[in-house]
Amino acid sequence: MGRIKSALEIALERTESVKSDKGSIDQFEAKQQGKKLANQFLGEDAQRVSIAGTNLAEAIKKTPRDQQESLKQGIFDVLLSQITLPLSRDDEKRIEAVGKGLQLVINDNKFTALYKQLSQLLTRYLDESAQYDEAIRRQYEPKLRQKEEELSRRMGRKVQIDPLQDPEFLAFYNQNMNALKGNYQTAVDQVREEARRIFEGKRMMA
């Protein structure tokens, strides 16, 4: 038959449980705060990105030491999700900001060099995307003109077709653009995985 616990032992166990719960809540809140800070950081315009970066670094320093890792985790999770193929030139500002933010929480020279290479690669991707877009439209144009002429004859009036509303063009366009994206997506995925590996490795050493 097991020993009956005293009232004091039960009270102490409850106190430890409350402390544990409080600690978990603090860590959760720190992580959520990190996500909020990261989103605010990404919302800054290009002229203020350096100031925002300083503010982000200060926020990390001001956070209690036992909550800093959770705060960084929240920041990291948001920024990591933003390592994606750019849709337009406007995304270059986001790519730059993501790199600066990740460098703050990862603090690793190898990652800094890797992300610089990725930024250059994504600039090249935007250049190639524009070239692909122009080449695809030019290659499909004779077929599009033929379709317009046929429709014009049948309807008795001039018809112009928006290429993006032509299913055949869209299929042709997406097939070629997806092939280009696939070549660069591999590099994006590799950088994301390397960022996660370095970040988690540093957390384990902390």
Can you characterise this structure?
This protein has 206 residues and is mostly helical. Helix 5 packs antiparallel against helix 6 (167-205). The longest helix has 47 residues, at 109-155. The protein contains 6 helices and no strands. Helix content is 82%, strand content 0%.
Summarize the structure.
82% of the residues lie in helices and 0% in strands. It has helices at residues 7-43, 49-62, 65-80, 91-106, 109-155, 167-205.
Give me the secondary-structure topology.
Elements: H1 7-43, H2 49-62, H3 65-80, H4 91-106, H5 109-155, H6 167-205
Q: What would you call the shape?
A: elongated
**Contiguous runs where pLDDT drops below 50 for at least 5 residues:** 46-52
Distance between the termini: 44 Å
Helix/strand-derived category reads mainly alpha
Helix content: over 70%
Mean pLDDT: 84
How many whole angstroms does the radius of gyration measure?
A: 27 Å
Number of helices: 6
Give the tally of β-strands. 0
Question: Biggest β-sheet: count, sense, barrel?
Answer: none
Portion in beta strands: under 5%
Order of helices and strands: HHHHHH
